[in-house]
Amino acid sequence: MTAKLSGAQKIALAALGLLALASLAAGWIAPSYAEQFREFISAPPSARFPLGTDELGRDRFARLLYGTRVSLLLAPAAALLSTLIAALVGGTAGYIGGWWERIVTSGIDLFLSLPWLFLLLAVRALMPLNTSPVTSVILTFLLLGCLGWASPARIIRAGTRSLVDSDYLVQARACGVAPARLFWRHLAPNLGPILAAQFWISVPVFILSEANLSLLGLGVSEPLPSWGGMLRELENYSAVLENPWMLAPAGLLVAAVICLQLLLRTEDAIPC
Amino acid sequence: MLRVLLRQIRKILITVILGGLLGATLVRMGPGFGVDEREVDSRLSAESQQAIRAERAAENNIALFYLRYLEGLGHGDLGVSRSLNRPVSELLKERLPLTLAALAYGVLGGISIGFLLALLTVAWQRRGTDVIPAVLSGLCLAVPAAVIALLFVWMGAGCRWAIALVVFPHVYRYSKNLLVAAFQSPHVIAAQARGLSSVRVLFAHVVLPAAPQLAALAGISVSLAFGASIPIEVVSDTPGIGQLAWRAALERDLPLLVNLTVLIALMTLIVNSVADLALASRRQA
């Protein structure tokens, strides 16, 4: 991420900020996402329910705001976790080298030999499936954070290795700079941009992964809403045709990911 | 070259064996493993229940299970799926062609669309020519694969094209960057300065030198496509390997999950190794 933002990036940042603020203020804007208004089952949009109600009589707008909170705030937390693991594993491999680097590289190859969604699906299914909604959220995003380290670790390892072999570090070593100072003073600050890039790349990937997992019934459990969980309503094609506002979660998800892509700037940044 | 090939084969074998062991270990450690609903079936006699327990006990020791699995694999026996109660080889035989066909269409379609759009953008160097492909690719990257599949189900179109839509944006962005970089290299500028036709410059001096890197895209695309095929097959109710993987994961079907892990890892690694070999041969040349 560069400090100077283009016009489109400024708009994207403002949109994301607004979305995050609205989701944080969900408690004031639309207090209950789980309350069932039994007299308003599958109601169309109105002043009281801007996006109507679902088949259980729950306010879709409230669920969308709370779902945004879950997806938009927890995906960065998972991305932070995966970047930290990647920094630890990839950074030490690039810095120490030798047998540890070989082990780490083999581990990364092993992880990357399986498609991301298959790995996620297999490991998520091994966890308890019948859990409380809060546990399911924690499990889903913890899993994303713990399994998403391999791809960033490969890049961080390569970045660290190239820094370790760079002229200024070789000279610092030749001058007798202590390893700890070498790491904290010369290496860590230069790794910052790589770590930041990996973090920002992971955020949209994790948002999309949560959506896919929830659509497969392995993500956040009901009644807690998430973007992915709300997309399950789309499986009812005839209902979507009659109630196009059911597409709002999909629209918001796509808009948020596009905003994140715009902020990333680099053209080849987003993996699956 | 032979040494590189042997190294790749060794790497594939080690990774596949370790991947299968990892998959089996994870399943063994998962909650609910070792519980068989048949044990509460009152119609079964004590002997039958004992036989079921003995059958499960063999799976409790993960190392033993995996060694037996590898031994069976050597004889072409992939074991029996517990959840579907059918030989795994039979299930794979039934479902693999469907997924392979979808992957072939999806990957080839995605690569063709992505590469052609990148080529057009680079060849037709006018301001704003890349707006439509960039918007399209950005949009496809932002939609979850399962939602793309839903759109195709609604339209009644084949889900193999949903895979193509997942693959295309990655191919477009990577190949566009590659072609733009190649287009700006000194030898291309020199060729243009000498008056070579733009078609010849594009194909002989831009596309051809970038071909090995473009071939490497195939490896990434297969992995991407396979990952996408899971939600796509589940959503569209296509009885392929992706759907089987989903069912195996939900049912904690150890023999099936281990076989699928090995198969998927093997497929991904082979395609990646072919791409790596293409790159290595190019570097040697």
Key features?
heterodimer; A: mainly alpha; elongated; B: 285 residues; mainly alpha; two-stranded antiparallel ribbon; 11 helices
How would you portray this structure in words?
The complex is a heterodimer of chains A (272) and B (285). Chain A is mainly α and 272 residues long. Helices cover 69% and strands 0% of the residues of chain A. Chain A has helices at residues 7-24, 26-29, 60-96, 98-112, 116-126, 133-147, 150-164, 167-174, 179-215, 227-231, 237-242, 248-264. Chain A is elongated and about 75 Å long. The two termini of chain A are 20 Å apart. Helix content of chain B is 80%, strand content 1%. Chain B has eleven helices and two strands; from the N terminus they run H-H-H-E-E-H-H-H-H-H-H-H-H. In chain B, strands 1-2 form a two-stranded antiparallel sheet. Chain B is elongated. In chain B, 40% of the residues are buried. Chains A and B meet through helix 4, helix 5, helix 9 and helix 12 of A and helix 1, helix 5, helix 6, helix 7 and helix 9 of B.
- Helix coverage percent of residues of chain B? over 70%
Biggest β-sheet of chain B, characterized? 2 strands, antiparallel
Shape of chain A: elongated
Indicate the low-confidence ranges of chain B by residue numbers. Answer: none
Largest interface: A-B, 44 and 54 residues
Radius of gyration of chain B, rounded?
24 Å
For this structure, the quaternary state is: heterodimer
Question: What percent of residues of chain B are in strands?
Answer: under 5%
Order of helices and strands of chain B: HHHEEHHHHHHHH
- Total DSSP helices of chain B: 11
Strand segment tally of chain A: 0
Main sheet makeup of chain A: none
Q: What portion of residues of chain A belong to β-strands?
A: under 5%
